[in-house]
Amino acid sequence: MIYEESYSEEDDLIIFLNGYISFPMDIKEQNIFRNKFKFLYNAAYGRRSSDRTDRPYGKIIIESIFEELELPYRINNSRNIWVLVKD
Fold it and tell me: What is the number of structural domains in the chain?
């Protein structure tokens, strides 16, 4: 028998976030992070009623999602460099 792990979309989001912990993100990397986060969030939880389709989530929206889902993450911003921190 072949053992196959299956991950949910929620797991994919957490795995993604854990990969960014303590990683300094400049503007270019922030845009990659923001787009991927929105994609994974929408896959796991659906589109929010207030979402705009023409732009990725910003820091404030991402942090509000962390709070809403009770995820132990926050984004530190220093001189336009983001660092994801897990509390």
Answer: 1
